[in-house]
Amino acid sequence: MFKKILDWLYYFFEFFGNHNMLFAKMYIYYHKSSVLKEIKLAGLKSTDRILHIGCGAIPYTSIILSEETNVRIVGIDRQKKVVNHARQFVKRLNLENKIIIKKQSGETLDISKFNVVFLSYGVIDTDRVLKNVFEKIEKNGKIILRKSTSDRNEYVDSIISKYAVNRLKLLLAQESILIVKK
């Protein structure tokens, strides 16, 4: 229930912020410290190939990652309207050469060309997306999984118990877990 409320709030904030740049910049700033902690947690480098699944209408993770790591980021979302808003937002910030936004599903996308994958909190079918990512990511590939501290899922929990390297508490009742495929 809590996750559904947060998902709705994120959806609302991102669509509202997409039409109000001041609000959008505050929204990005609000999340910046969490993304900076995740960058440190994962030890990201400028040579990493990063995919962000569930980028949202304001792809703040992709924006902060591209600014801080100087890496070209691919952000995906499965909703056409969200992708259109995200593309417009990236264009308004003149970041089209650093952030590519695509309409794709994390459940089926071939992620083999990426060595780092961020799974956003708002991803609906986390277990199916994580299964696809985990099966296709290269050895020593890193997955940064954002989830509610109270969410329980047999598959997700089994991957976390076997492959989680570290975790950190994020905003509200969320956490970020670094998973490394061995």
Give a nutshell description of this structure:
This protein is of the alpha/beta class and 182 residues long. It is 45% helix and 21% strand.
What is the strand and helix layout of this fold?
Elements: H1 2-17, H2 21-42, E1 50-53, H3 60-69, E2 73-77, H4 80-92, E3 99-103, E4 116-119, H5 126-136, E5 142-148, H6 154-163, E6 164-169, E7 174-180
Parallel strand pairs: 1-2, 1-4, 2-3, 4-5
Antiparallel strand pairs: 5-7, 6-7
Helix pairs in contact: 1-2, 2-3
CATH structural class: Alpha Beta
CATH topology: Rossmann fold
Globular, elongated, flat, extended or rod-shaped: what is the shape? globular
Alpha plus pi helix count: 6
Distance N to C terminus? 34 Å
Largest sheet: spatial strand order: 3-2-1-4-5-7-6
Q: What is the second-level CATH architecture? A: 3-Layer(aba) Sandwich
Mean pLDDT: 90
Name the CATH superfamily classification.
Vaccinia Virus protein VP39
Secondary structure class reads alpha/beta
Give, in order, the helices and strands: HHEHEHEEHEHEE
What percentage of amino acids are in beta strands?
Answer: 15-25%
> What's the gyration radius in Å?
15 Å
The level of helicity is 40-55%
Q: Unreliable segments (pLDDT under 50, ≥5 consecutive)? A: none
